[in-house]
Amino acid sequence: MAKTGGPARAVTGPAHRSLDLALDRGSPVPLYHQLAQQLEAAIEQGVLAPGDLLGNEVDLSVRLGLSRPTVRQAIRSLVDKGLLVRRRGVGTQVVHSQVRRPLELSSLYDDLEAAGQGPSTQVIRNETVPASADVAAALGLAEGGEVIVLERLRRTHGQPVALLRNHLPPGLLDLDGARLESTGLYRMLRSAGVTLHSARQTVGARSATAQEAARLDEEEGAALLTMRRTAYDDTGRPVEYGAHLYRASRYAFDFRLLVRP
Predict the structure, then answer these.
(1) Which of the residues 10, 32, 235, 245 could staple to 18 if both were Cys, CB 3.0 to 4.6 A apart?
(2) Is the pTM for the entire model greater than 0.70?
């Protein structure tokens, strides 16, 4: 049971890991928020892994010595964030942790793989098309000239997290579909002898269209993070222009800010 400043009884998943929670009843922070914060931290740190079961609200309230409304509010906040899911007849289950990505010139695939997020890729489009004005300007090509467009759906633990659209100059590398589904684009560029040096990037947000929502398993109008990036090689040549969409419920950019002297 939860005690002031002391550990609450463990929540046990199928792997029989125990999770000790310390809920402070004397704190001005609401108990539901304390519970939600500690469960979220356990998910992000891997103490609770995807697939682990927390049980239902009745079980949790008894184990933790909390009221059902308190437990329900904590779980609802994590369900809304996409960290937990309620399954009929099963209880509350951990889905995944939110992807936190450093804002630097790196491959999403490499970042997810390094974080143990189990990335997978579905190639939706891989063809040569006439370059639009903005794509031509970004890549230094003539408007209407040939450019390769690549669209992919990136998943972690089987759940969609990002919809990626990249444009590349023709002849830069062989964009083999099977390889694109097993590795990242930047890794393929490096293997082709392209040395990535720098990029210009803009991060924003907007609402999902019906088609985007369907692919990303979101509701139409859900918040999406956007990123536009032009990457350059070590000669200053633009080699890739990306326009990507990320589920705000599953994805965050990490910034490191320095005080200018």
Answers:
(1) 10
(2) no
> Does one domain contain both 28 and 119?
no
Measure the CA–CA gap between 251 and 85, rounded to whole angstroms. 17
Task: Indicate if the pLDDT at residue 241 is higher than 90.
Answer: yes
Q: What is the pLDDT of residues 138-162, one digit of tens each?
A: 999 999 999 999 999 988 877 888 9
State the Cα–Cα distance between residues 178 and 122, nearest whole angstrom: 10
Report how far residue 120's alpha carbon sits from residue 162's, in angstroms, rounded to the nearest whole number: 11
Strands (E), 95-222: 99-102, 119-130, 146-156, 159-168, 196-207
The residue to which tokens 């489009």 are assigned: 125
For residues 10 and 123, what is the distance between their CA atoms, to the nearest angstrom?
Answer: 42
- Strand segments (E) across 45-88: 53-55, 84-87
CATH of the domain at 68: 1.10.10.10
Structural domain of 248: 99-254
We report the CATH number of the domain holding residue 113 as 3.40.1410.10
Q: Residue 12, SS3?
A: coil
